[in-house]
Amino acid sequence: MPMSRKPGAKSSTATAVHETLAAVLQVRDGELQVLLWERAREPEAGAWALPGGVLDAAETLEESIRRHLAAKVDVRELSHLEQLRTLSEPDRHPGGRVLATAYLGLVPAGIDPALPEDTAWHPVDELPRTAFDHGAVALAGRERLRAKLSYTNLGFALAPPTFTISELRSLYRAALGHAVSATNLQRVLPRRRLLVETGERRGPGRTGGRPAALFRFRTQDLEVTDQFAVLRPPGRAFAGGGG
Amino acid sequence: MPMSRKPGAKSSTATAVHETLAAVLQVRDGELQVLLWERAREPEAGAWALPGGVLDAAETLEESIRRHLAAKVDVRELSHLEQLRTLSEPDRHPGGRVLATAYLGLVPAGIDPALPEDTAWHPVDELPRTAFDHGAVALAGRERLRAKLSYTNLGFALAPPTFTISELRSLYRAALGHAVSATNLQRVLPRRRLLVETGERRGPGRTGGRPAALFRFRTQDLEVTDQFAVLRPPGRAFAGGGG
DNA sequence: GCAAAAGTGTTGTGTCTACACCCATGT
DNA sequence: ACATGGGTGTAGACACAACACTTTTGC
Fold first, then answer.
1. Across residues B223-234, what is the average pLDDT?
2. Which positions of chain C lie under 7 Å from any protein Cβ?
């Protein structure tokens, strides 16, 4: 078992730097976008990188990524944060071995955090030249989000506190990358107890139209809402068609 | 960005040892079991630990866990290996900080690998006293397996090359922890193109009974088979009830 | 009245569960 | 014939998609 290793001891289990990275995603202008900063120095000068940095001695990985993100955005605006995976290709970083634990972070729509000079949002579907393996991490974050939107209530992390079905539909469309029917969204999400009607309505725009009901997510805690019809325990209600 | 850090430089980003761990699961005697070894030395002498060890300088995490597992089982018998998550609680290991990347490994039923003296299989539902946070990792492996059994073809990793529906049912029951109907398994899995009939049959036992058809999994590569009915793109076939 | 936007009624389809029933074998 | 275990027929429940239609607003 590893433990009393002298720092700097020259051995094959050399000291590897460990960093944290985050693909912070938000729906902006109808597109799913990721927060990137432009590297000024070599290596990879001019390429865009995910926010992150080195793990400190006394912090957990999650504390670390929150600390580094604080330099780019207001961390209180993060509605969700989860670990994606740890990257370990020995040559993923020139100039020395760097292990990296990647996170997925989400920011609700409608927030526009102040950003440093070198930092900007980019559509995940049109990434600029990215540094190291950061492009792949951004795409992995998008895929994790897409999967969880379908079988959990993770939508709460993309949506503002209250919203109309129309607005929610456009968030889902941006995140999933395909059209979503407002009709069916309105039936499915309340049936699954994801959405609750607030009772309020939003007045129509200048062009008219019926006022839209305002909804909110029932909870801001991640829950699995689609229990996979097949292979469920026998004898349950809701035994019908797959969910 | 981390890179040109002198090994042994005294700083708050001290050198942390990185290890890999694996929850290797197999259905044995109708129960889901996990491979553990009994620690002879402190810390945690007498407690049971997951196999694993320190990450070497030039290897990836997956290479590392395969190398360490080779000391316990024949790695060729592993039908599946995937990363679970990286543990980073600063005090998860007494005597020094140890980051650990945990893997889930699976071994098909029917194989009984030779094991070292200190190593044994234990039912995941009745774990002995476990070392460090290894018990939680074993349970996390079980949960990952259960989820993926329901929406992927991961069953291939639990099953022998060919099997009857009955045998497969008992594997699923052990892994999922609840009864599974053979009738429905026989309809659902072929419909989802997970199973293929081999054409062969297995003779009945001494007590009689109709000979059972032998099946195999169509592929040994992980595939997502349940595409989550809701929020699928519009206009597709199979648009009906949820998958 | 007309256009615009929101929301509902309704029908059709596919999946899954459950249970009864039939089939093939050993004794 | 009977027991045992494998496999199928069939009916019911339910979720979902699609589309037509109604409701509520602004002009």
1. 65
2. 3-9, 12-20, 23-27
